[in-house]
Amino acid sequence: MDILTKSLAGIVGSTHVMDCPPDALPASWKGCICVTASPSDTVEIQEIVRLLEHDYAGSGIIPVGAGLQLAAGYPPPADRPLVLLSLHRMNRITDHQPDDMTVTAEPGVTFAQCDAAIATSRQMLGIDVPRPERATLGGSVAVASHGLRRVRYGAVRDTLIGLKAVMQAGTEIKGGGKVVKNVAGYDLCKLFTGSYGSLGVLTEVTFRVHPCPEVRRTLAWHVPDAATAARVGLELHHARLAHTMLFVHGNGTDGYRLIIGFDGIEKRVNWQEAQATSIAATAGLNDGPEVINTEALLKFQNAPADVLENAQAAARISGLVTALPSMLQRLQVANPSLLSADISTGLVQIALDTNSHAGTQLVMNTLTAVGPEANLTWHHLECPETLAALPRWGVQGPPLRLHRGIKASLDTSNLFSPNRFPGKA
């Protein structure tokens, strides 16, 4: 590794290369030897890729943003040198077109930084991911992030309209463009979204932005249990009040809340609040909702990232929204440290503080019980010896075989994020 470290220092400078201590890596990466390099531009990334391909065959590159999702997926092989390519120095906003409602930035730009820059034009990304002061645009594309208001403003895959990336042999590719209506070429934006750094290194991303609303209001009801919250939430969902978010959120210790949000002009938001309160009361929530302030809303937004600091296992389950009451009724038995469900999309997140077989098996059994429409992804497992048999990316069917074929054809040397996604064939 000393020779590799010196070679990397020759590209990015000695102050931007360092050995990565084992305790800074996810527990599932036991035995991995890594060095961190921080390039400042596309040219340095290209040089690093070519260096590893030509002089260090069998090595691996793992692109890193804030590192909030580093434990997601299968761990890299411990028998090869790994370079964590930190993109925090590539943190420039290169273009903002308020009239076209687009913004272009390097991958290391954080959501908070980007929103602050475009707020001067009364615009926003609309993707309120956990820890926006740390989460980067490039990292969120790689892991297919979405915010609380996905039903209104879309997820990363819906708002990403252009990108540049470095792939094998140091080749730079471009997909999409800097205008919203763009149908030229292959849709590389969808291909790279959710690829977990397995196809290449993002060097530039372009997003569609949204106008800031005049009023933003978030309401919450305390509910007896998660299943009741889901049942009432479906009543609100079917009422078509044009909500921006609708969640069941809580844990086995503090209880659960039903949360709904509205954006728009004040007169409209007042009407939406009155309608939601009336529907919830008819459904059995007689106590009026509380208005969530900015500080409490940020805590709710950050919860998925915060619980991972102590969680032993965490998963995402996607299914039909009509199955949410029965799904949450089963999952809350596991006494989770986090149980959150998006009523509008059917996406559930669960975190467990214990790595017991009983807890993880209950999650797997729930997946089977709710039917073939549901799928599960384990995106955080801290005890690989105990949980090695769990399929990280869900059901091993045709979609994963297709992903493996794409990976094999576009990264023939398995250089980028080896084994992480979609795992070994």
Named CATH topology of the largest domain: Vanillyl-alcohol Oxidase, Chain A, domain 3
- Please indicate the percent range of residues in DSSP E strands (runs of 2 or more): 15-25%
How many beta-strand segments?
A: 19
How many angstroms does the end-to-end distance come to? 28 Å
* Class from helix and strand fractions: alpha+beta
Shape: globular
The strands making up the biggest β-sheet line up spatially as 15-12-14-13-17-18-16-19
CATH architecture of the largest domain: 3-Layer(aba) Sandwich
Counting structural domains, the number is 3
Distinct helical segment count: 14
Quaternary structure state of the chains depicted: single chain
Tell me about the biggest sheet?
8 strands, antiparallel
Give your account of this protein's structure.
The protein is of the alpha+beta class. It has three domains: 85 residues, Uridine Diphospho-n-acetylenolpyruvylglucosamine Reductase, domain 2 (2-Layer Sandwich); 119 residues, Uridine Diphospho-n-acetylenolpyruvylglucosamine Reductase, domain 3 (2-Layer Sandwich); 173 residues, Vanillyl-alcohol Oxidase, Chain A, domain 3. Helix content is 32%, strand content 24%. The chain has 14 helices and 19 strands. The strands form four sheets. The protein has an eight-stranded antiparallel β-sheet, with helices on both faces. Strand 5 and strand 6 form a beta hairpin. Helix 1 packs antiparallel against helix 2 and helix 8 runs antiparallel to helix 11. The radius of gyration is 22 Å and the shape is globular. The mean pLDDT is 91.
